[in-house]
Amino acid sequence: MYVGRFAPSPTGPLHAGSLVAALASWLDARTHGGRWLVRIEDTDTPRCLPGAAELILGQLAACGLQPDEPPVFQSTRGTLYQQALDQLSARHLAYPCTCSRREIEQVQAARGVVRTRGSELPYPGTCRPPLHHAEVPRGRTTKAWRLHSGLASYALEEDHVVRWHDRRLGDLQQNVEAAVGDFILQRADGLWAYQLAVVVDDADQNITHVVRGEDLTDNTPRQILLQQALALKTPSYLHTPLVVASDGEKLSKQNGAQALDLRDPLHALLKAAEHLALNPPSSKANLTDALSQWVREWARKYP
Known about the structure:
Blueprint lengths: L2 E4 L9 H16 L3 E6 L11 H11 L9 E2 L4 H13 L3 E4 L3 H10 L33 E4 L1 H4 L9 E5 L3 E5 L1 H4 L4 E3 L7 H11 L4 E5 L6 H10 L6 E5 L24 H11 L11 H15 L2
Parallel strand pairs: 1-2, 2-3, 9-10
Antiparallel strand pairs: 4-5, 5-8, 6-7
């Protein structure tokens, strides 16, 4: 059975870009006769704002996007994430890292590797242990736990490349070890990294289809690698076109995206639907009529 989800972070209210992702994921679930869930991704507690989760749920309800189950909060699920990390560690697929961000930058700078705008430096493997050995060096403090992407990729095809099909973007691939390196599973402050939390939650909630913004496409190979390392099923993926600000950058809370004006929810949804290349309903259509029309259109675009 189809199970989809929308997973906002409660760092502020929904904006135009997040409504596009919410509408697309809701339409995909309704098109396939499935369930649509909302998961509040609040693991990064320092960035979460009091009352933001309730505000987001209210915004979704105003737009007629009601989840089929009560929302799940990641901040209550630490035990599941610890179990997954323990499982990876027991199989030598995760190890403690003592490197600071500055140390990583210095090592890569010495190699001539410079971080480009909007990207992250591949981890140079400084703390990567020999096979079947994962101890913190004396005098050093664990700052994070990382996935050993080299060992994890051995289960892939001969070239260790993650390959997947995106329902909108087509066939994609990435060598995670070369492009990203050993990525973080648990941060130095003890907070759980997005990659591990989302993989564990998608599996625990039986998510079969992930529909989200195109800015998260690059996360997909890391998540597939984790899914395989944890013997979990890989969902189907569809990444929607980004909403960009006037300067061409992704519209986000970090660059000052304005909260949705929901005095007229249908007007806000019309803009989101237009971005998804869906046709406007008749001038006499109400919210329910519009959503019903877009479900039919979505079924033709993404059967």
